[in-house]
Structures are given as C-alpha cells and as structure tokens.
Amino acid sequence: MEKLIITAAICGAEVLKEHNPAVPYTVEECVREAKAAYDAGASIIHLHVRYDDGTPTQDKNRFKAVMDAIYKVCPDVIIQPSTGGAVGMTDDERLQPTELNPEMATLDCGTLNFGGDEVFMNTENTIKYFAERMNERGIKPELEVFDKSMIDMALRLHKKGFIKTPMHFDFVMGVNGGISGELRDFVFLRGSIPADATYTVAGIGRYEFPLAAAAIIDGGHVRVGFEDNVFVSKGVLAKSNGELVEKVVRIAREFGREIATPAEARQILGLKAKV
Predict the structure, then answer these.
(1) CATH number of 45's domain
(2) Considering the entire predicted model, what is its pTM?
C-alpha cells in the first residue's frame, strides 16, 4: 500500500476566529499553522489566503507573500493554492494564484448550493477554462468533487482532453448541498473513479476523522484542517492544524500505514521532484 499523503487545509475562506481563535488570517499566522501541520506530518498545504482582518482574497500578491513565507520554514512542502476562492468571485479573480505557477492547484468540478442564497458557481465552461489554464502552466489539478455528478463531469472532460491522467480527486464530503459524509457515500465515490486515479478525502465537521480512517484503510489519502473542521474531538477545539494532523498520523499508525514525505508525495502524484 502506498504511503499516506496528508493535506492540511489550514484556513479556508469561510471559517473565522470566532469559530476557533487559532484560525490564521495574517501571513505570520499562516506560517505558524503551516509549520505546525508540516512538522506533524503533512506534505501538502492546501492554501486559501486572507487579509489581516480575515477577508478572503485571491490576490496573487497576497498568495505570493504567504507562499514565500511558508517556503522559508518548510522548503520542500507542496503548496496547493485554492482556485475556489469565495462565493461571488469571478473566474479570473479566482485564477490569480495560478500565475505563480504552483505545482498543484484545486479545480472544482461542479456547482453547489452552499445554503441560503449562496451558490458556488462552476459552469462547464468555467471548468474547461480553469483546466486549460492549468495545462498551459504545467499545474496538476486536484479535482474537487462534492458529489458523484462532479466525478462524471471530470471524466467527460478527460475524454475531451481538458483533464489529463493520472487524475487526482479530492472527495469533499459533508458540505451542505453536496454528498453526505456517510461511509456508504464514500464507497460510492471511491468506486466511481478510474483505477489509475489517486484520491484524498476531506470530511467536513464530524465526518473528518471517520472518513480519514476509511481512506487510510482503503489506501487513499487524507485532508484535515481548520477549513473543514475546528475540533480535535467532540466539543474540544483543536489548538492548531498540527494537532489535527497528529490525530491522523496516530490513526494511520494503528493501521500500519506509513506517512509520505513531500518527496514521496510528489512521486505518488506524478509531480516533478523539487530542486
């Protein structure tokens, strides 16, 4: 079985310090949280950025400042910027971090009703546009899927040449408007991707650790972090993203699964070795 790649989604665009005081906004706070996750065993940092007041932004200059600062303390880590941004942002606004030529970036594969009047829009043309940009720049997309239909969209666009193999999926499970985080639904998504594809599971809220265990057993990979869940156990706030990663590492050890280094994660995902 391959070693386990752990991704830490350290801040997201929606979670606030009101939910957990350790949620990072500033450059320094993002570095603190990335370093804690990296030291605990994360090889990928899934990155949104904020202004110092917590406002989400896709400003490429803010991304560059945060990424450069993280690389200073975690020089070999894989940084995976989000192109999801926040609800209401334009396509070109969301794509700004791709101008920095990261190794990976997220590619959302469908539209989702987040709740109330909030709709996270990803039309077929948007998905094609994002895929073309990533192909041009040699960026590996992590295919963010919130439901089975989004896997189907990714597979259709692969047949049309927009998405290349081997594909890497992220099953985001338990989001309002998307598929639930039940084991039944994990098995459904897992059985719907190609045999040569890799996947990560991001369980939202209470689904985070049960789905992490399922992915560990199955040979998949795991995402944890404040973007998805601010609790280390029921009612107990996590002190850092590192504490969430540490819990995944403990679960993996119970099942005899070794943790991938960034270099090993690059090999598993087909990324170029970092020099």
Answers:
(1) 3.20.20.70
(2) 0.97
